[in-house]
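Sequence in, structure out. Go.
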Amino acid sequence: MLVFVYGTLTNPDCVASVVKTFEFVGDAVLSGLHRVDGRYPTLAPGGETDGRLLETTDIAALDAYEGVERGLYVRIAVPTEGGDEAEVYVGNANRLGVTESVSWPGEGAFERRVRRFVGDRDVSVRIVE
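Output:
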C-alpha cells in the first residue's frame, strides 16, 4: 500500500521502528492540502505539502502509530497522478496542539468533513522526478 508521509515518517529510522518492511518510492507533493505544525504536524485545506511516498503492507502498525483509533488522525485515500491511490494521515488540529487556526468546511464530525473536502476538491499526490 502507498502512503504519503510528511512528518516523522519521512525518516527511514523512524519508519523502521514502526513497520517491519517498507520502501520509499520517491519524493512526492500532496496538492490541495498544506502542512501545519503543532505538537505533531497535520494538514489543512489548500496549498501543497512536500513529502515522500512510502510503500508497506503494515498499515495496521501505521494506524496505531498515528493514533487512528484514538481519534488523533484519520487515514484517507487520495488519488495519485499515476492512477493509483495513496493513503494520507490527517490529524485533528484541536487534538494535536496546533496553534494555527485550521478549518474544515461543512458540518459534522472531523473525519466526515475531511473526507468530503478531499472527495469534492482536486486533492492528489504526484511523484517528484
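Check: The CA atoms of residues 19 and 60 lie 9 Å apart. The helical segments are 12-18, 59-66, 110-120.
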